[in-house]
Amino acid sequence: MTITAITNVSLIDGTGQDCVNDAVVLVENNHILGAGTKQSIAVPNDATIIDGGGQYLLPGLIDTHVHMALEIKNVQESLLTPFSYRFFEAAKRLETTIQTGITSVRDAGFADAGIKKAVEDGLVSGPRMQVSINPLTITGGHGDSWNISGIDTTAPVYPGMPDGKCDGREEVRKTVREMLRAGADVVKVHATGGVSSPTDHPEFTQFSQEELEVMVEEATFRKGVKVMAHAQGAEGIKNAVRAGIHSIEHGIYIDDEALELMLEHGTYLVPTLLAPLAVLEAAETSNTMAPYAIEKSKEVIDIHKESIRKAYEAGVKIAMGTDAGVFPHGINLRELGLMCEIGMSPMEAIVASTKTAAECMGWGEKVGTIEAGKWADLILVNSNPLEDIQVVENHENITFVMKDGQVFKDTLAKAASVTN
Fold this sequence. Notes:
Order of helices and strands: EEEEEEHHEHEHEHEHEHEHHEHHHEEEH
Number of helices: 13
Number of strands: 16
Protein name: Imidazolonepropionase-like amidohydrolase
Distance between the termini: 30 Å
Domain Amidohydrolase-related: 56-407
InterPro entries: Amidohydro-rel, Metal-dep_hydrolase_composite, Metal_Hydrolase, Metallo-dep_Hydrolase, OTAase-like
Radius of gyration: 21 Å
Oligomer: single chain
């Protein structure tokens, strides 16, 4: 039995309860053994002690919408990059992500089961993953990157990455089965058009409600796998919720009826507020963004914020997700500050990034809070995020990262050795 005691910390446990000062957390192997005040937690004499230096201990953060096998490039660079190079890029992005304090992710497209297994087997350092393989899309919809020139820049299919394009109930049924066969932990569908696709608009409705119901039937009812929907236009959002889809991604044009349906069905919302903002920022400094993506981002950015504000005020369950890959990986935690800008408190943003995000992924019994029995996913922040949530945006402020009881980052130890 190996026990580690993390002492001298202020504990923000992810449940939304008040911060506990002078706290202790015990870790046994890869699980949390106990957490509380130093008066309530008995530290074994043979425990390994990690002195937290008065910093703030949080659960490992969770991003429920990333693309680890993607990072937007200009078209020429994409066309000239060798196919296998993307896997080495993904390894680098995974390492970057866990160093920011994100210990679990739900990949919303293009990471395959091999990337997930590389993390699980320790070949690659990164957050634990759920993968959706390839998002389902209609011909000519978001996810179909056929261009009017006739050149198709849609990512190629390969063993382990089935084609996501499908039209009609029976093609949809077969494609869901192919994604599940390829190892999908969650099925992703593009229920509407989007910002980054060349031939549609975010308000365009793609699959019919009946087609969406087939996806839920095949994934959830047959295999116990949830469906997540890229859904930006109001009608597509409502079709997805009525069909029983588990989470709405983006939610740019949410109307009052959609809010009522989401509350009735218990549907999660993953805002990705950072995505359109990052597109516009990139447009000012690089040539990676297509003109249509820039124009659509300008069109939706303020509408998007207002929709998420309304959803938050209505009490919709919000899980943190960023769309990392549309912008460079590693800046994900800017999303928390943006959630606070639409009305959340710093504590609510933290809960959305821990407890609620874990529940959205179906991992609420395993991760997301610092409680006895849960996996030991823990991070230390060098100043109080409840006073300034933006401290988490700078990865240097994340001084310690533990996932599953294993330490992936520890600048505390480096600082101590320099002092000594």
